[in-house]
């Protein structure tokens, strides 16, 4: 899923003042489009790496995607080692982001990030309504903790009432630093899936993705620059499955992994490394090289939302060049495309889900795809279908009227759809429950 990735800017100088004041001042200058004044605070390394024009392109590109900043919250300061960090919530017109400015012991800016905003502690809790197909009386929820060693992840286990030994589906996120509900705008697809499936006899585990739960650790450029799909996605899914096998009321022989987007692409690798899964469900799983996917997504966005596409390109002025080198296999690992180093994109390409599925003939597989999806398309579905051809333990289903999030609509989907509330379609819920075996086969 193509999402706004964290943007890292590194500097070696700063105003001489308190970190809270300096962070707010820098953001105020950017908000006022006074880029020359903001640029004047940069030290030699920052000035060389980020010209006034580039700073302008980055900030205005984000505003073209999300609208202007309408408000900023109070600065919140903490410490990580010798660094002092300031986080300020920036309310862009359509999406809030957290600006994180990090200062070294000398009071100089050492990092600047814009990341998905954490929940506002002062804001009243707003509960997303359940879909009409959900009956809260049919399930219970409890807090648990999962995750690979050293990466604890808060999670929610949703159990069907009246089932002594329930099958369990573990949800695995798409790309980006998601929460346990895989919240995107007003939508929470993992919450819909959990509540819908639990009402149909299937237990569901959903957890905070480590890049969301441990944002502070990913503020370290060394960690951010070395992340790959194995540690970002696969390791935590494996740890969750291993832990779940010891839970009372869960059938250890019927544990499934259901991945969305990148999570679906990773599901065959998770199954191979785990070796004990009862099956996997792939929701909108890509099977083509990442350079092709990103280029196709950008071209679609250019057609349906030119301003948003222009903003993406302005944020990454060399995107087309890097994608071409990625396609040719000549891109360097430390080059970046949409904020992620090429080595990360290579880790995605190394997943090769179609090849792995062909090498796992005894693994039950359910592949679901939305026909309106512009991020993962029927070209990907065809590759997966070919790998599963002739297998009695594999089911492939296309929903012509659903998008990447499996929400119903008309025509090819657009990025703006993520800003409209909706629910995962009930057909997806029923098809997964039926395939797991808790609903009668039609």
TrEMBL record:
Q: Where is the signal peptide?
A: 1-16
Molecular function (GO) terms for this protein are: hydrolase activity
Q: Which residues form the DUF3887 domain?
A: 23-112
Q: Which Pfam families match?
A: DUF3887, Hydrolase_4
Q: Which UniProt keywords apply?
A: Hydrolase, Signal
Protein's name in the database? Alpha/beta fold hydrolase
Domain Serine aminopeptidase S33 span(s) in chain numbering: 169-407
Q: Which domain of life is it from?
A: Bacteria
Which Gene3D superfamilies does the protein's record reference?
Answer: 3.10.450.590, alpha/beta hydrolase
């Amino acid at each position: 899923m193509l999402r706004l990735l964290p943007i890292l800017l590194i500097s070696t100088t700063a105003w001489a003042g308190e970190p809270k004041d300096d962070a707010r001042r820098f953001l105020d200058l950017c908000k006022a489009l006074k880029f020359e004044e903001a640029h004047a605070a940069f030290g030699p390394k920052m000035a060389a790496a980020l010209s006034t024009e580039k700073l302008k392109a980055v900030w205005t590109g984000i505003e073209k995607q999300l609208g202007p900043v309408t408000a900023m919250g109070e600065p919140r300061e903490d410490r990580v080692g010798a660094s002092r960090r300031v986080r300020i919530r920036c309310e862009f017109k359509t999406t809030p982001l957290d600006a994180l400015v990090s200062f070294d012991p000398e009071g100089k800016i050492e990092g600047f990030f814009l990341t998905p905003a954490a929940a506002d502690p002062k804001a009243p809790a707003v509960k997303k309504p359940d879909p009409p197909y959900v009956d809260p009386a049919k399930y219970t929820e409890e807090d648990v903790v999962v995750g690979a060693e050293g990466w604890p992840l808060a999670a929610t286990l949703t159990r069907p009432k009246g089932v002594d030994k329930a099958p369990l589906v573990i949800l695995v996120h798409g790309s980006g630093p998601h929460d346990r509900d895989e919240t995107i705008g007003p939508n929470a697809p993992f919450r819909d899936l959990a509540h819908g499936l639990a009402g149909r006899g299937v237990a569901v585990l959903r957890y905070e993705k480590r890049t969301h739960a441990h944002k502070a650790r990913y503020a370290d450029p060394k960690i951010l620059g070395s992340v790959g799909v194995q540690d970002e996605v696969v390791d935590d899914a494996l740890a969750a499955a291993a832990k779940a096998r010891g839970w009372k009321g869960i059938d250890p022989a019927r544990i499934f992994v259901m991945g969305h987007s990148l999570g679906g692409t990773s599901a065959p690798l998770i199954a191979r490394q785990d070796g004990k899964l009862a099956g996997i469900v792939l929701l909108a799983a890509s099977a083509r090289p990442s350079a092709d996917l990103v280029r196709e997504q950008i071209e679609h966005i250019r057609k349906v939302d030119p301003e948003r596409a222009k903003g993406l390109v302005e944020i990454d002025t060399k995107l087309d060049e890097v994608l071409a080198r990625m396609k040719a296999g000549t891109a360097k690992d430390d080059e970046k495309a949409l904020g992620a180093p090429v080595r990360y994109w290579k880790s995605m390409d190394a997943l090769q889900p179609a090849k792995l599925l062909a090498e796992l003939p005894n693994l039950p597989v359910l592949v679901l795809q939305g026909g309106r999806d512009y991020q993962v398309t029927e070209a990907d579905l065809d590759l997966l279908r070919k790998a599963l051809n002739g297998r009695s333990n594999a089911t492939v289903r296309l929903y012509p009227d659903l998008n990447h999030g499996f929400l119903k609509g008309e025509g090819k989907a657009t990025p703006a759809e993520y800003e409209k509330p909706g629910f995962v379609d009930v057909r997806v819920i029923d098809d997964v429950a039926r395939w797991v075996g808790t609903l009668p086969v039609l």
